[in-house]
Amino acid sequence: MKSFPIQSELRQSAPLLDAYLSYFESNRLPFTIPGHKQKASRLDAGLGALVDSDTPLYGGLDEIKLTQGVLKVAEQLAAKFWGADYARFSTGGSTHANQAIILALGKPGQKIAISRTAHRSVLSALSLTGLEPIWLTPEIDSATGVPIGIPLSELERVIDQNPVALLLTEPGYLGTLSDLPALIAKAHQHSIPVVVDAAWGGHFGFSPLLPQHVVALGADALITSVHKALPGYSASALLLAQGKYLNLARIEQNFETTHTTSPAGAPLASIDAVRALLELRGKELTEALLAHVNAFKAEVQSQFELPIFLNATDFPPGRFDPVKIVLRANQLGLSGVVVERALEKVGVRVEMADRDTMVFLATLADTAEDFHELAQLLIPILKDQQSTPRPSATSLSWSVIPQIGTSIRDAYFADSEMVNASDAVGRISADLIAPYPPGVAVVAPGEILTPAIVDGLTSTQAAGVRIAYATDPTLKTYRVVTK
Ligand SMILES: Cc1ncc(COP(=O)(O)O)c(C=O)c1O
Question: Is 444 a pocket residue for ligand 1 (Cβ < 6 Å)?
């Protein structure tokens, strides 16, 4: 028997956390899955270190027959806290939550209005559902080169095509936000539900110093990764929805269709524990984080003349996540990828780096000391590498305007062949190809490979960015739909 020294206030407010801890505190002789039975250390210490603190939902957090309904109780607490009609906890990340909800939005062949800044999980859901995307192009800020959300005019342009939903990605990967109240009001005027992939926005809504969360702004669904901006277990995610414009029974059906039948207990319990933490201390913790981020940025910025971070003042009020740390490497004339490598040598891993941009993920788990240490490691590297500033460029992920050759689903299931990169231009891609992170498609199945895409992918890769999901990762050949 083992006991966990854990803050009792949180445990009392989080039934799944309590169930997880209670499991390990009880006497047990499991003749159920998981096969490691929390005693794999008898077989090997390393394997035991990996699996002996694992217990599933079925037969771990609850009885095998879910007689206690503890997951439902925790999900209802989350729904209430975020002001939603419905909540589900996923162990499959926002990837699963996005797919579950998109499957519930319409029928194959119907149209859906989607921001082109959508993550690949949204695009793969389109292949699964057969919904046809109407792409909405983000506005690009000329000063910083970053996308600043979908303008209202983009939604107005497509509204006559009767999309079954408006699907937005908010905040975007670099922390910017659309004018959500305007977009939501316009969509609702036409009874169009608004689904928001807020994978990076789980920390919104608990302090007036940060943007409100999208349920509070009137969106019909919010998907967030509890392991990204919030301190949850890897791949834990939360799906919240309102029943006015969305069919909650269909969402439930599709959630179960696409989720594992053996969810691990720790990710589920972590979502519940994070909800309780936000309920008890959300304002205090997010405001402390904001203060730390501001102090960090000021400490590094004080060493340089040109602005080297994206700041809330660069954008209209409320349109930037102020705890997002985005370093503008071009302002110092250096390569984000080179800085990333130098930081790796001193033990720092960053969320994303390409030629012009670096993203450092800051969360409630970071202390003032962590930020100071990062500043002290980063400043000498930046000073050492600094050279002539480059103009702000817009990265490939944000600048492609797709040319459609055939539907995403038809291309996904079509016969395909590999052709040389030079012969691929003008052909229809069978692959989704995206720099990762951010995982935003440069080309999706069914779209035409243009010279800008093929050359842009090659030069992005040459700059040190990982290009993901191409059948041939060298990009010497491309998988295209057979003529
Ligand atoms: C906007 C967006 N949505 C969804 C996802 C997928 O999230 P997860 O890794 O939790 O599956 C990501 C991952 O980076 C993302 O950036």
Answer: no
